[in-house]
């Protein structure tokens, strides 16, 4: 797979380890520049009956909009 995607040998094997090495100081300025909380959408997949109330209590989030996967 790595060859087909032109990734270096061991890319997938080492991916999680390499992500774990990233520090906030490495990416903090980029996050503050490019990610604006008011423009973000959080998608949660699961049982709406169990998740809607806890999600509505998270700071900075409005009332969750629930959509059934059965809807068009």
Protein model, in words:
It is a single chain. With 72 residues, this protein is mainly α. It has three helices and no strands. The chain has helices at 11-20, 24-34, 48-56. The model has no long low-confidence stretch (mean pLDDT 86).
Topology:
Blueprint: H1 11-20, H2 24-34, H3 48-56
Helix content: 40-55%
In angstroms, what separates the terminal alpha carbons?
34 Å
Measured on Cα atoms, how large is the radius of gyration? 18 Å
Largest sheet: none
Q: Could you give the order of the helices and strands? A: HHH
How much of the sequence is in beta strands?
under 5%
List low-pLDDT spans. Answer: none
* Number of DSSP-assigned strands: 0
Please state the overall shape, judged from the principal axes of the Cα atoms. extended
Assign the structural class, choosing from mainly alpha, mainly beta, alpha/beta, alpha+beta, or little secondary structure: mainly alpha
How many helices in DSSP terms?
3
Mean pLDDT: 86
Concise description?
This protein has 72 residues and is mainly α. It is built from three helices and no strands. The longest helix is centred in the middle third of the chain and has 11 residues.
